[in-house]
Amino acid sequence: MAGTQTVERDTELQTVVRTKDVKRVYRMGKVEVHALKGITLDIRTGEYVSIMGPSGSGKTTLFNMIGALDKPTSGQVYIDEVDVAQLDAYELAWLRCRKIGYIFQTFNLIPVMSALENVTLPMTFAGLTTDEARDKGMDLLDQVGLAERYDHKPFELSGGQQQRVAIARAMANSPSIILADEPTGNLDLATGKEIIQILGEMNKHQGVTIITATHDIKMLSASDRIIWVRDGRLAKIERREDLDIQIGSIGGDAEGGVEATLRGMGEPEEGEAPPPEK
Amino acid sequence: MQQTAGGSARQERKIGRQIVLPFSKAFEIAWKGIRIRIWRSLITMSGIVLAIAFLMSVWTSGVFDRTMRNVPESNELYPLVQGALAAQAIAGGGARIRCAVLEQRPSADAASVQAGESIRRFLESQEAFWVERAPEADSLIELLRAEGETRPNVLIAVGLPGTLFEPNVAGALESFVLGGGSLLVYGTEGAGAREPGALANILPALPATGTFSVSGGDIVRDPKAAQVGWQSHPAAEFSETTGNAGAQELATSAGHAVAWSQKFGTGTVTWYVAAPSSAEDPNVISWFVRGQGADAGSETASGASSPLARLIARAAGASNARRDMRGVWLVTLSLMVSVVGITNAMLMSVTERFREIGTMKCLGALDKFVVKLFLIESSLQGVAGSLAGAIIGFLLAFVRALFTFHVKDLETGKSYWLALRFLPVLSLLEWVAVALAVGIVLSIVAAIYPAIRAARMEPVQAMRVEA
Q: What residue spans define the domains of chain A?
C-alpha cells in the first residue's frame, strides 16, 4: 500500500502524477527513435516508487516526462491533475521550484556556494527572505545530519554528504514530489544505504511522494511499488510485498538478480535486445 | 511539515507563476561565481584588458602630443609654420623643403625650451632640418647664401634672435626671400632688449610690394606699398590637390595673389610670413598673415579669408585628420577582436557549466535569470578589465612620453622632463571614464550570445552524467 501520511488530509488518496498513453519520439537525423511507446500509469500521493529498466528502455525518458523536464510527443502528463504541456515557462519554473524537488546522480550542488547556500537557493527562487531561508535551511540540514557543515563548499564534502545536502535542497520548498535520478549511482554500498534510508524517512514522516529511476536493487526494499520499463513500454508493476527478495536474487530464480527478472519479462521485440545493466 | 499541494479535493488553481527575482539576487550569485572561478575570469578579462590598454595608450599619447604642442607660444605658431612650409611647397614647385630655424638663446625657462622642442619635433615630421642655436651673423649669412642642398628655403626665426638685427643680415635676408625662400619671423616685440619697431627695420630691406610694418604693436600700412586688397584671380580654381603637381599649377595660376588678414591682435606678439607667390616672378611677394586672439590655435585660418590661406590651412588639417583616422581604425579593430575573444571564452564557460545551469533551472530559475547572471558576470569582468587596462595603457603612454619629451639643454646641462610639467590630469580622467564605459559596454555586448545560449539550455541537461 502507499506510504502512510502523518499529515491530516482527506482519507481518499489522490494521484499526484498521472500519465496517459505518453509517447516520445526523437528525431536523430533521419532516424526516428521511439523512446516511449505509450505508457499509462499513475502514482499516488505519498508513494515511494522506483522506475527500473535497462539502458535504452525509456526509463530516463519516462522519468523526464514525470518530472516536467520534457514534453511528450503525444499523450498527456498530469501533475496534480494539471496537464504539464499546457504550462508556460513561468508556470513550469514555479512547478520545478515549489512542487518538485530534484536529486541527481552527480549531486549537482552549485560549486561556488556553501551547503547552506545551496539548500536555501530554491527558497530564494520561491521568494523567501534571507532570514526565513536561513532558519529553514539549517533545520533541513539538521534533518539530514549535516548541521555543523553548513558553511562547507561542495568540494569539502564527501559524495554521501553532498547527496544529503542535495536531499535537503530538494526538500527546501516542501515539495509534493521528489524526483531522484540514480541517487546512489555515484556512492558506495554503505553510503548508498544511508541515502536510501533518508529518502525513506522523508517519505514516511513528511509524506513526500518519491519517484526514483535507478538500477540499485537496494532501493527495491524501500519502494512501495516498482515500475519496470522495457523497450518504451510498461513491462511490469510490482508491489513490494509481492517481491520475493532473497540475498542476491529476486523472484526465486537460481541465477538471481535484476537480469533474471528482466529476462523473465519476455522475448525481446523486433530484434532489439538491449543488454541489461548491473 | 505541511504539504503544499496535492491531496486536496478543492479545485483551485494549483500551479502558480514563478516570480521574477530582484536584480540583487542575480548579482549576488554572479559575484560569488567570479570569485571562485577567478582564473577563468582572468582569462576572459585579458582580452578587454589588452584592448583597453591599447585604446588608452593611443589616446594618452595623443593627449600628451597635443599638450606638448599646446603651450601658449606654439599655439599659433604651428599653423604659421605649416603655412610657411605649405606656401613654400606651393611656390617652390616641388622642391624639397629645407627649413632652418633660428632660436633665441639662451633659453630662459622650460616653456621656451618646450616651444623650441615642439617646433623641432614638428619640423622633423615635415622632413625639415633644424639649426640648434642662433648662429653668429656670419654663419647665418653663409647659411642663407649657400648653394644647393644645404641652402634652406624656409627660414623661421623664433623669439627674435639677435642675429636678425645685425647689419649685414638684412641684406642676406632680402636676397634669400627674393631668391625664392620663405621667411617666418615670430617673436615678442618690446621684450627684452628689443625696442618697439626694431622689427620694422628688417622690413624695409624687403621689396616694397605688399609690405607691412609694425610700430608699437599697431599695424601701419606702408605708404610705399602697392594696393592693398584682394586680387582675386579669375582662374582661381584653387583645387583640393595639395600634391606638388597641383602646387605647381596653383603657383603659376595664382599670379600676383596677395593675401593678408585684416585683423590683428593687440598683444605683443607679431608675426609675418613672407613667401614668393610665383615661381616665375619672385619679385612679387605674397604675404600670408594670420590673426591672433580667438582664432589662435585653430587649424583653419579663419582670420585670413584668402582662398590660398584656406587651402594651406586645410592641407595642414587634412594630414592630421588622416593620421587620426588611422588611429581610430586600429583601435576599433582591436576592440572588435577582444569582443570576439570574450564571446569565445564565455561560450566555453557556458558549455562547461551545463550542469550548473540545468540545475538552476530545475530549482526554478527563469530563463531571464540565467541571462542576467551571465551578463552581470561579464560586466563585472568588464569593469575590472577596463580599469586594469586603462591603468596599464596610461602608464605605458606616460613612460613613453616621459622619455620622448625629455629635453637637455646642451649649454646649461639642465634636464627638462616636460611630460611631468604638463601632465594633463583632467583630460586623462575623462579618458579613463570613457575607457571604462567602452569596456563595460563591450563586455556586455560580447556576453549576449553566450547568455542566450545558456538560457536556452534544457534543465534535463543537468541529468547528463558525462560532460
A: 46-68+84-263
Q: B5-49, pLDDT tens digit by residue?
A: 443 333 345 677 777 777 888 888 888 777 777 777 887 788 888
Sequence-ordered list of residues with C-beta below 8 angstroms from that of B383, at least 6 positions apart, any chain: B436, B439, B440
Which pLDDT value is given to residue B97?
64
CB contact under 8 A, B3 and A122: no
- CB of A215 closer than 8 Å to CB of A245: no
ipTM value of the model? 0.79
Q: CA B156 to CA B103: how far, in whole Å?
A: 9
The answer on pLDDT for B352 being more than 80 is yes
Reduced 3-state DSSP string for chain B? CCCCCCCCCCCCCCCCCCCCCCHHHHHHHHHHHHHHCHHHHHHHHHHHHHHHHHHHHHHHHHHHHHHHHCCHHHHCHHHHHHHHHHHHHHHCCCCCCCEEEEECCCCCCHHHHHHHHHHHHHHHHCCCCCCCCCCCHHHHHHHHCCCHHHCCCEEEEECCCHHHHCHHHHHHHHHHHHCCCEEEEEEECCCCCCCCCCHHHCHHHCCCCCCEEEECCEEEECCCCCCCCCCCCCCCCCCCCCCHHHHHHHHHHHCCCCCCECCCCCCCEEEEEEEECCCCCCCCEEECCCCCHHHCCCCCCCCECCHHHHHHHHHHHHHHHHHHHHHHHHHHHHHHHHHHHHHHHHHHHHHHCHHHHHHHHHCCCCHHHHHHHHHHHHHHHHHHHHHHHHHHHHHHHHHHHHHHCEEECCCCCCEEEHHHHCCCHHHHHHHHHHHHHHHHHHHHHHHHHHHHHHHHCCHHHHHCCCC
Predicted confidence (pLDDT) at residue B242 exceeds the cutoff of 70: no
Q: How far is CA B413 from the centre of its chain?
A: 30
User: Do the Cβ atoms of A90 and B17 come within 8 Å?
Assistant: yes
For residue B30, the chain A residue with the least C-alpha distance is A112
Mean pLDDT of A91-95: 89
Identify all chain A residues contacting B459, using CB atoms and an 8 Å cutoff. 69, 96
Topology of domain A46-68+84-263, per CATH?
Rossmann fold (3.40.50)
Distance CA B197, CA B218 (A): 10
pLDDT, average across residues A100-120: 91
Length reported for chain B: 467
- Of the residues B18, B29, B357, the best mutation for testing chain A's interface (the one with the most A CB atoms within 10 Å of its CB) is B18
In the prediction, which pLDDT does B431 show?
82
Select from A64, A82, A126 the Cβ nearest to the Cβ of B15: A82
Instruction: State how far residue B442 is from chain A, nearest Cα, in angstroms.
Output: 26
CA distances from B153 to B146, B150, B205 (A): 10, 9, 18
User: Phi and psi (nearest 5°) for A216?
Assistant: -80, 120
> How is chain B split into domains, by residue range?
23-66+324-463, 77-296
Cβ–Cβ < 8 Å for B393, B434: no
Q: Report the distance separating Cα B139 and Cα B135, nearest Å.
A: 6
Q: CA B399 → CA B372, B393, B413, distances in Å?
A: 40, 10, 22
Q: In whole angstroms, what is the distance from residue B362 CA to residue B383 CA?
A: 31
Residues forming a β-bridge with A23: A37, A74
Kindly state the cell numbers that stand for B292.
Answer: 591672433
CA separation, residue B414 to residues B113, B249, B359 (Å): 11, 48, 70
Set of cell numbers at residue B74: 606654439
